[in-house]
Amino acid sequence: MSASSAMAFDSVTWVWDATVNSTVDTTALSEINVAPEGLNMTENDQTTLGTITATSLVTAVDNTIIPLLDGNAFEDLAAVESIATAVGNNAAIESDVSTQTDNSQVYAGLDASVGTPLTGELVDAALPGAVTATASALAILNATVDVDATAVGNNMTVDLTTLSDNDAFAITNNEQLSVALVTSTATADGVLFNGINGMGGGDTAAVSSTATAVGNNLSVKVDGNF
To answer: pLDDT by residue (tens digit) across 127-138?
Structure first.
């Protein structure tokens, strides 16, 4: 028998390719026991067939300012607002007790050849409708401009603000269908400022143009007294 020293490795390099398939099963069990002080139960069904149009036009506003020796300030400007809002179906629920809501909203077009809901005849709700909002402000002199156009097909808002923790829950079944062309256009053009000091230095925009188009919108807010 003889003894020998072990060999030492200066470096070890591993190279391998591996494919790993994993399956994860997650089970969650929740149990809620509450004694609500009240109940707001709502069933909301809305159907709109046709075209909804909102138009706001402001043009040729001239705020003539007498120039001072040291110029005029931002506060000397006038304020111009042009707002257009077109909404197909809208529902808003505010409550201070637990809320249960069943909501159904349909917005679509109308085929005049097959009648209207007033005649009791069938209507083809698969035709696209139109929700159009157009706001514009043109040729404005020495005035701040705020142009806002909003077009919405279906909108549902639930706002629950409770005083009791047991009431701070909402159960909502929401169905929204929009078969429509939802268009929003905001235009601000030809806005001029003449002899005004301090332009561009404030936190508020001197010219604002905002366009918002929404097909379906759901907003649920639960604010408990926790």
So the answer is: 788 999 999 999
Collapsing DSSP to helix, strand or coil, 165 comes out as helix
Backbone angles phi, psi at 139, to 5 degrees: 55, 65
| CB proximity list for 165: less than 8 A, separation 6 or greater | 224, 225, 226
Residue 63's φ and ψ, nearest 5 degrees, are -95, 90
pLDDT digits (tens, 9 = 90+) for 80-129: 999 999 999 999 999 999 999 999 999 987 645 444 555 555 555 567 88
Whether the CB-CB separation of 116 and 139 falls below 8 Å is answered with no
Say whether 119 sits in a helix, a strand or coil: helix
Return the residue matching tokens 């230095």: 201
pTM for the whole structure: 0.74
Q: Is 108 helix (H, G, I), strand (E, B) or coil?
A: strand
> Residue 195 carries which DSSP code?
S
- DSSP bridge partners of 187: 136
Q: Are 78 and 146 in contact (CB under 8 A)?
A: no
Q: Cα 163 to chain center, whole Å?
A: 28
Backbone angles phi, psi at 5, to 5 degrees: -80, 150
Phi-psi region of 161 (alpha: psi -120 to 50; beta: other; left: phi over 0): beta
Q: Please name the residue that has the structure tokens 């000397």.
A: 76
Residue type, 34: V
**Cα–chain-centroid distance for residue 173?**
19
